[in-house]
Fold:
Amino acid sequence: MVPVTVIGVVVRPRSTFAALAESPRLALGFAAVLGSGVVALVLGLLANQLGGGGGAGTVASLLLPVLFIVYWGAAALIIDAAAGLAGRSGRWRQYLAVSGFTFIPWIAYALLSVVEAAAGASTTAQSLIAWLTFPLLAWFLYLTSLAVFSVFEVTQFVAVALAMLPDAVLLFLLIALLVAANL
Structure:
């Protein structure tokens, strides 16, 4: 079931997310997040080895599965709370089951990191490859919007706004930490 769903997310995301929302399975969403995190971990370690990233890169790669799971859970709670403004709250478990498959672009992102590291530091090829990460971030936002749209049954514009909210909260927290560190 998971490989079929992964292929569906890549080839036919709208219908796949709609089907996932109709019969949500939390274990399947968790497996997608954890699987994406483990694959990103392996690819991150490989990119770190190729690029000579050292200890910091190794630690960052090793933390990826945990960070994926924490972000997945926090995003579900943030989106569910904000969906309450539209009278659609209380669906965070269903959203968790569906949104696990939004992490698939991070595998491609990690794969690009390997190609970027293999291209060598400060090369034109490395710069070009780095620019390819932006469409992957857009793909992640698109998939997250589809998951929100499928689960919370809001308009597409509200779905995009809700999909961006966890990243806005994360950015706010990072800025607050930077300000607090400079005090």
